[in-house]
Write a structure and sequence with these properties.
DNA-binding, homotetramer, 206 residues, Tetracycline Repressor, domain 2, mainly alpha, Arc Repressor Mutant, subunit A
DNA sequence: TATGAATGAGACTTCATTCAT
DNA sequence: TATGAATGAAGTCTCATTCAT
């Protein structure tokens, strides 16, 4: 039974989640501390623990929230068009997510590098289902001769890798270029190049 | 005065570094503990600290060792051939590194997600120099009409992202496919697909 | 000036005291928490603290209430009859108290095992006075040849020990026999046996 | 596998157990703190936790140690003689235990008043078996006409209650009489009176 | 070289209590 | 009268590090 949440409760819980996302993004679950989160959220540690009883509970809430945003994000994507439109749209969606939820993306990355103790089941079930669907679509394109003969799963990994890279390795990218996805021109250039190469490598020459 | 290192010392130090690489790969610097490293290395904590005085010293040694392997790896790479040969070779090199040093790759990933407190300077100097050189080469190709007009920096990021993905997200990949780069067929298929798409997207149609 | 206490106040205070008696009986003063008491009393913690300002205040009220009941209980007891009647009556009284106020008895037991920080003075004054009186009565009986020559203080301890045992070690007794003093037959049998032995050991054979 | 314990380890573990027995005797498991135990044992808190990893582990060790002493104690008891000898001997044994292990006795009392979360199983199995045996013996005496017709279980409870009372309510007894079982005369007088009454109440007049 | 013992700092969490409404 | 929100103090436990042998 979901407790009724007052206005201030919603606000404070979100403050905590935002701070926690940043901290867990940097240090992972084990490395991040409640002190850091409390300070960043601008509240005392016991007050924070009034909203979330344990560190793990905060972590789970962060994962869940990020997951929801990610799923919602993927729902925006449509498989209806041509391969070019569909892939292009998918890259748009993923890169947009990396721009708007860089910290969330890093929380996922950390979780997976820790061996995905929480998300493993989910990855093996829900995500696998999504991937299987996409794989079928791509296989259909190949069989149909719409695109070059490509191994679908590695194409999917490639798109994920590239789009998430801009979020997960933001520090490195910023150190090397002085830019992040927040920079509009840089964002456009990244999107353009990624699409250029992937579509160029996947589509048949007309 | 460099202490003379006995045979056993060298062996034990390497045992520590191997264990530490695994632990820091999973939990990052903050999240990993000396206890975990000592246990994995099969020695007592005080004995471990006889070889490395502090946790940070271990971490630095891990980073340095991984870095050396990575640089050595890159030295094997030759820019002398055609764009196709050069890029193909680069992908080979990076993917091979991901296969042989998956944990090391994840230590880097963690370090960068923590904001690269140790490596930031290095990234901004040594790595930037390497990247600048590569950028020049690619620009030359473009100007020369050898390849399509591509933004060099995003091409480089793309190759990094894709090749490292197989190391950094190993857990996710294994959960989805049941395979890792250690699987020879999977490794070959990954390499083939990555080259196919990137080269296909970069090279001009003949 | 004694605040006028409304009906609901009286009811709620009693709800708190009942819950607190149970909790302190189980965990002692230090081990019991206001949360536990509040939950058992079915009210929020701040509301509970509206009736009793501090944990200690609750504890004192519990001790006082139990004490009052105990004293009232002892007033029912009459020394007027024969030794047999008097002792028999005393055992009745004490055992009845154990049955009706098992939790209260345990609160006392805890208090005393903690070193009686609150009750020590009372024990040394009021209780000592009562014990001294009883001692005199018993000594009189002995001198008079009404009962066997018995050390009065140890007789008193014995009656206390036995009667309180059924309250304080209720869990043990229930585990061993499946019964408590709430069970009418068990209660009667306990009373009968206790009287049989003590009276048999104290009274002269006729 | 029992770790080999060095000399100092044994000494320090015993220091901890002794202190913990006193603290848990006073405040119960919930109420007693590691700080108190560490201070009483004369060592730092982390050092104490080097020997026992958790508070519960200390508590279990205390219960186990006390239990062992208690069982060893009961082994000294012989059922071989007449009812008089046997009961007399039993009282001796139990009272001696109360004198030598007053704190341990109180730890048990606390455990039982908390509902015996740890010992419940043990009480229901091992102790029940012991009690059943004793019950049979007593029943035999009754059937044989050696003693008066007494309910065995309540006789056993009575002996336990009385003998343990001197340990568990030591504070009250000392406040009222200025004596404890450590006082030799008081000890002898208690023993004499207890035996006098119980034997007087149980045995037939010769 | 190796390890049992020890500890201060700090992390997570609980709890009595207060505040504001 | 009632309760959601907040907090300082304290309690349990972990961890990097040091010491002694």
């Amino acid at each position: 039974m979901q407790k009724k949440r007052s206005r201030i409760q919603i606000i404070n819980q979100q403050k905590v989640l935002d701070a926690a996302t940043d901290i867990f993004a940097k240090y992972g679950f084990r490395g991040g501390t409640i002190d850091q989160i409390a300070e960043m959220a601008g509240m005392s540690k016991p007050n924070l623990l009034y909203y979330f009883k344990t560190k793990k509970e905060i972590y789970l809430a962060v994962l869940e929230q990020t997951l929801n945003k990610w799923l919602q994000c993927l729902q925006d994507w449509q498989v209806t068009g041509t391969p070019e439109e569909t892939i292009s749209n998918y890259i748009d969606t993923k890169l947009e997510f990396s721009r708007n939820h860089a910290a969330g993306s890093r929380v996922f990355a950390n979780e997976i590098m820790e061996g995905a103790p929480i998300l493993k089941t989910l990855l093996g079930e829900d995500l696998k289902r999504l991937v299987d669907e996409d794989t079928k679509v791509i296989k259909g394109w190949v069989k149909n001769g719409d695109i070059r003969p490509i191994d679908p799963i590695h194409l999917i990994f490639m798109i994920w890798a590239v789009t998430q890279h801009y979020a997960d390795f933001e520090t490195q990218i910023e150190t090397l270029t002085g830019k992040t996805l927040q920079d509009e021109d840089f964002y456009k250039q990244a999107k353009k190049t990624v699409k250029q190469i992937i579509l160029g490598g996947v589509l048949k020459e007309s």
